[in-house]
Amino acid sequence: MKSTKTKSVAPATWRSIKVSLLASAVATSLFACQAEDPAKSNASESATPKASSAEVKPAALTAADAEAFVADAEKRIAGLYEYAAKAAWIAQTYINVDSQYIEAKANEEFKLLGIELANGAARFNGLELPYDVARKLDLLRLGLTLPAPANAPEKAAELANIESQLTGMYGAEKTPSGEHYSLGELSRTLAQSDDPEALKQAWIDWRKVSPQMKPLYTRLVEIANEGAKDLGFADVGAMWRSKYDMEPDAFAAEMDRVWAQVKPLYESLHCHVRAKLNEKYGNDVVATQGPIPAHLLGNMWAQQWGNIYPMVAPEGGSGIDVTARLEANQYDAIRMTEQAEGFFTSLGFEPLPKTFWERSQFLKPQDRDVVCHASAWDITTEDYRIKMCINVNEEDFNTIHHELGHNFYQRAYNLTQPVLYRGSANDGFHEAIGDTIALSITPKYLKQIGLIEQEPDASGDLPFLMRMAMDKVAFLPFGLMVDQWRWQVFSGELTPDQYNQGWWTLREKYQGVMAPVARSESDFDPGAKYHIPGNTPYSRYFLAHILQFQFHRELCRLAGHEGPLHRCSIYNNKEVGDKLKAMLEMGQSRPWQEALETMTGSPQMDATAVLDYFAPLKAWLDEQNEGRQCGW
């Protein structure tokens, strides 16, 4: 099986921000009626006698009020969702000044309404409520990523302006003095060059753009923390962690527990990669002990290491050139997509609606600009689409299976759940489901669908496993530490004069990587990663990288698979399809632990599935590492 390059972790797409956007798009009449109208109050004050404090005290909110609030919210969401989705779709598939204007105006409106709605839901904090009412209120209250303070429109405007400035700075790729540094070009240098000085300079140059962000980010933290406190949270980090059906500190501990399970595999990979880098570059560039300099790992953030795979690859092995087999069998974009749909129908899922084939973007249009980054969309409960610019190759064949995983997840909960429950069990589940399906694109599956005639034996799979590990295993500690840093910033554990030091302390602790040159607090290296100035929570990516293997292992057990886990495919097994469908249909109606138990029989995340999948590689790495001093 020929390895493919794993997609880089991208900002949240429509599918993963849907519920937050919907929450932001709702203004409820109950909240509007109960909130005092300052204009009316001031106008009437001079015309009528001032009432006593007892007479103007608002009536206590009741469970019935909360139920009415939620019902009205869901009604309005249902009326707004299709418009919001189509505005976003047009903005990405017909890029021009008009479509961008429409999307920008919608986003501005949604932001303001989301603040109003979240604060409206917070008014019911502390009430004893039926389960569904309480859960839906929590989803609304947690719908904002960065909440602004209640009753402070000037701070809401300031926060929105800061967010815009930060993303603009990242996108402009310029220093305050106007020097331009292209992330694309610098990233290509890191991916392709083997000159350590050129690698170091590319790494340094990109981080010249981010220091200007630090004062703005500091102010953003101040304002958003005020907003989080108004919603009943200790700080923004506690608010983010509260989205996981656990106490905030318990969720942080759970992340570290899972990381501890998989850390030995990462340490073995780290040890071997460091040794190979030392063989190539020598002791003056990378020592045989301690952290690896971050500029040597082929990626601007050292988050995935696949670009240096040839340097560390095991010898031998045989692979399947899936691209060649697709071409030989005259596959095109539509046939590739049909085959991916066939994976799901083989599990017992209904085919996608006719409109999927009529409205999706499968190819890059020749007459207009579009966003080619792959994404899956649910416009209505009957309208599902993917947006890609498909090429006939192995990477896109895998990606299509992944994206349709999102579509079938969307349809499963859209047809069974009320509006506020139409989302994945937690934000890691959606990506995990797509990746679980992609893990079943194995030689067994390729033989079943006629792309190959015989499965090669598993003895030559080490190169495939190493290539997978260089992205999926290498990513894990980075996926964990990004939000660890933000949690410390939001809580005040890291003050602004410790931002950069705290970033590198965590990177050394979890990743075993270090900055290639001295850094100071005049730098703002966190800002060099999009998700920091873009304010996109990152824990979802860590969760997805754990859960996909846990899902895969359990479904393979149900399928009766024998042999290496990385060789298993669940294709054409309707019993497995029933198990998968039962979890997908839950949406986010229940805590994610219950959804996990529905799929795996256990409510607890278990990273030993990662160890099982990569077991042959771990054994080989341990052999290679004999006599080396591992760890950092």
Polypeptide structure, described:
- The chain is an all-alpha fold and about 625 residues long.
- The protein contains 27 helices and 4 strands.
- The radius of gyration is 25 Å and the shape is globular.
Q: What's the layout of helices and strands?
A:
Layout lengths: L13 H11 L4 H6 L3 H8 L7 H4 L6 H31 L3 H26 L8 H11 L11 H20 L10 H10 L3 H11 L7 H17 L5 H6 L6 H34 L10 E2 L15 H4 L9 H7 L4 H14 L7 H6 L15 E4 L5 E4 L6 H21 L14 H11 L3 H6 L13 H30 L7 H13 L1 E2 L24 H20 L15 H11 L7 H9 L7 H6 L1 H10 L8
Parallel strand pairs: 1-4
Antiparallel strand pairs: 2-3
Helix pairs in contact: 1-6, 5-6, 6-7, 8-11, 9-10, 13-21, 13-27, 16-18, 18-19, 19-23, 21-22, 21-23, 24-25
What best-fitting shape do the alpha-carbon axes yield?
globular
- Which strand order do you get reading across the main beta sheet? 1-4
Helix content: 55-70%
Low-confidence stretches: 2-55
> How far is it from the N-terminal to the C-terminal residue, by CA?
33 Å
How many beta-strand elements? Answer: 4
The percentage of residues in β strands lies in under 5%
What profile does the largest beta sheet have? 2 strands, parallel
Supply the number of helical segments.
27
- Protein structure class: mainly alpha
Radius of gyration: 25 Å
List keywords for this structure.
globular, two-stranded parallel sheet, disordered N terminus, mainly alpha
Quick overview:
This protein is mainly alpha-helical. 57% of the residues lie in helices and 2% in strands. It has a domain at 322-460 and 548-597.
